[in-house]
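Appendix B. Worked example

We walk through a single record from start to finish. Start with the input: the chain for Carbohydrate ABC transporter permease, Micromonospora acroterricola, length 299.
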Amino acid sequence: MPTQMSHRRSAAGESAAAVRSSRAARRPRVGMVLLGTLIAAAFVLPLWWTVASALRPQRETFATISPVSLWTLVPRDLTLGNFTRLFDTDFAQAMLNSAIVTLGTLIGGLAICAAAAFALAVLQFPGRAVFFAVMVVSFLIPFDAIAIPLMSIFRGAGLENSYLALILPGIGNGFAVFLLRGFFLGIPSELTEAARMDGLGWWGVFWRIYLPLSRPALIGAGLILFVFQWQAYLWPLLIAPDPEMKVAPVAIAQFAGQQGVDFGAIFAGATMTLLVPLLVLLFFQRYFTQSVSASGVKG
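Next comes the structure step. The output line below is what the pipeline stores for this chain.
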């Protein structure tokens, strides 16, 4: 009997210790969930307020901010008047221009960035490390710092007010090249050596081996190019002043003029422009995560 009682006490002690250990392990997880929820709310609430402001009459846009209440985030009177007024202007043409410029940037940018990344990751040539270092430094320079001199070059070449002028600065994205190069470095070199021994040229290696294996990285690089071009404001404002060529961010900014500010149209335009990248990013986010994690395998 004493032996059985000691065994029971031991088992009870182990069970209690396991429960305490489980509770101790659960506390950090609960804390991380709460922290993640707060961070998510900090990002979501401004977007929610933008959409809510697009769906309420303009007179209520700032009337519900102070004091903060439920009506700050929920419109009292739902209306589509802001969107109707928005599309009474040339905003639809501006959205179409943004779509054309972004699509052109995606096609041209992926072709150039993937080829550059392949050369920097696979080909052996003198000065490769220097070229890569210059490329890394290039995407650390703010585009605003070079926008004015670049505009002078484009105007001198007769490219003002053209889709080509809007597209060209976005196709050579250093971060996209950096991302693709890191992914290409993770592809086994034995595949390249076997293909070369079978008589495949470098173009064939790039086209038939590296590109088919790099779909997550290509999608990740494409998302970078997409976001960079879709939200571009300064460059389109400088190089395409023609009303027929303006893009969505420029069109939204022009709702604030000398006659006053149409906040309802601004929020409606912001809602329309943010929905496109939001849906694209939600659909392709797992590919972007894979590409970023894989690009860190080798450097």
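Two observations about the output. The chain has a mean pLDDT of 83. Residues 20 and 241 are 67 Å apart (CA to CA).
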